Amino acid sequence: MANDKHPDTKVVQGGRRKEWLRNMVNVPVSRTSTVLFDNMEASREAYPPVNGRLSYGRNGTWTQWSLAEALTELEPGAEGTMLFPSGSAAVSIALTSVLAPGDELLMVDSTYGPTRHFCDRELKRLNVSTVYYDPLSSPAEIEALIGEKTRAVFMESPGSLTFEVQDVPGICAMAKARGLSTLLDNTWATSFFFTAIDKGVDLSVVACTKYISGHSDVMMGAVTAATSHMTRLTRTSRSFGQYVSPDDAYLVARGLRTLGARLRQHELGAVKVAHWLKDQPQVARVIHPAFADCPGHAFWKRDFTGSTGLFSVALKGGSAADLDRLIDSLELFGIGYSWGGFESLAMSADTDNLRTAALRDYGGPLLRLHIGLEDPDDLIADLSAALADYPAA
Ligand SMILES: Cc1ncc(COP(=O)(O)O)c(C=O)c1O
Fold first, then answer.
1. Per-domain boundaries in the chain
2. Order of strands, sheet of 221-226, starting from the edge strand that comes earlier in the sequence
3. Which of 117, 208, 245, 248 is the most buried (most CB within 10 A)?
4. Which class in CATH covers the domain with range 259-388?
5. Is CATH 3.40.640.10 what the domain over 7-256 is classified as, yes or no?
6. Of ligand 1's atoms, which has the minimum distance to the CA of residue 220?
7. Is 389 a known active-site residue?
């Protein structure tokens, strides 16, 4: 598909090649391990594996290729996309593809917890050191951390739990000038609201488990690469035997087709609920990238085309136990370690043990909300009843 189309058109049309559709609307689920060839010459021509040429089950069929192609088309300037069994697998393989023993990684302090654990455990074991930087660091401040062994800068914008928005284009320009690879966890915005590759990111990671699939019933990750990083991403991914099933690829592609409609509805609901929360006496502040007082809001305004359903609320005083009671009393919000599905969720956003470079006091416990596709007025009524019993300072 020509790359001049709008994101809404791309999520509907992307990856739906005529030869893969075979007169159906959706690319069918085609399962296989073994691929049979007409003769030996054809078996040799199947390698190296490329999307669009059957070789072996692990290298996918049109079901997985179609999804990968659709995700690539959402990122102007991208070369291709590799799929992974989870968002965390996508993060760890992307990092492994650019790092070698003896290297150093600059990692944003507000990164998703398991990403941090991968760095502190697995990368450390492989003699790769990690230096954490404050998510509010300017490109120049990050540049000052670069040493002889530094090879890559990892960003997550907005950050997990605390939603700091980073100057991704500025950091990428600096990193490129210093010969470093750049990686971004783009799960919150997805490439629907933030195109990463054309802003200078080399490897853009999305946990499709969240908004891309959107229905809380499948796990998957994807890494979309700039041309300069596609070969190493492909090689590392294949060497580690990464694979997603056609059944899961079908579910994620099915979710992708409605991504635009869902994200805008999440955005509307979340902004309405967040505005209401901001004025409640029990709330110290709302941390939402579209709000002017969110750290890095100017970068959100400059670089993003929308906001999604996930944000945090700092309560005015009260204890962690008070927050637990508040969450337990909610009726419409599920309690779960995820987000990005059609349903609303609430979770305490405890950053203890997840920050070393940017320790911030928000004055009270942090509540993370995912605003689903329910009517926001019903969610506000639910929150109102729960907040009424909160012992605010
Ligand atoms: C920002 C972010 N990145 C990556 C992941 C990992 O995705 P998965 O749960 O599919 O491994 C998550 C999951 O919550 C996440 O919130």
1. 7-256, 259-388
2. 78-84, 221-226, 203-207, 181-185, 150-156, 104-108, 129-133
3. 208
4. alpha beta
5. yes
6. 10
7. no
